[in-house]
């Protein structure tokens, strides 16, 4: 049986307070299983990164978690809510149980410190009693793990290529062998060859070390190849989630189909790229009913009136997936 590792339950994240608050994440329920790669896809502004920062309590002001739970299933301590941890408990939880690889490695690494010192500082913060020699040996091991020679410990971030900087960040994220690695669009600024190399190494590391991955990107074509399951976000909500193969071959939500039609097929006959007309919704003035209905080619009467509920579709083979669309009645 697949064990849940993190369960996000009815999570709501706002920017601001009171009547002027912008609801960036709305009633999101999502489960990351042990050893799984879960992809999270959607256009810019759909709430993907806000969801990740909300579940790890990394939201900068004026972001606030307005409601919900993030249950972490610790095999030793048992399940607990990350949102209720004290500051000291949260410091122990971060990097040891869950780590994050941010979108821009150059912005995440300190430009005036060598790579080696940044790796050893992260290790020392959680294991201050260890020796300097042990920390340096671990830092070299991490660099070798992600395909970077150990002598690069003396380099500054600007002396590394974009791909190498991103690999350093992945190595740093694995320093304390966390159970969960959250990757927030880590390959956005890289060319397609480097993207494939880094993602291939990530899959190999996952198989070796057994951690789970929440991979956030707007590029659905990457997730189809490297993810076990994919969740699609639009307007701050999950609108569909299913095994990656099902999303690719038989997507149910028109928004998922629009994302799939926005990139060229690698194999088979040529087809015209369709894209999605219009623009993502303004979170300050969301449309009534389904947020996607103003752009949806299949919208009909209920779409503009009521918000569809995310549930298991009432159709054959739908037990492993959920969808929120009036085209597909749910159980």
UniProtKB/TrEMBL annotation:
This is Oligopeptide/dipeptide ABC transporter ATP-binding protein. CDD domains: ABC_NikE_OppD_transporters (cd03257). Keywords: ATP-binding, Nucleotide-binding, Transport. Residues 8-260 form the ABC transporter domain. GO terms for molecular function: ATP binding; ATP hydrolysis activity. The keyword Flavoprotein does not apply. It comes from Kutzneria buriramensis. NCBIfam families: oligo_HPY. GO terms for biological process: peptide transport. It holds the Pfam family ABC_tran.
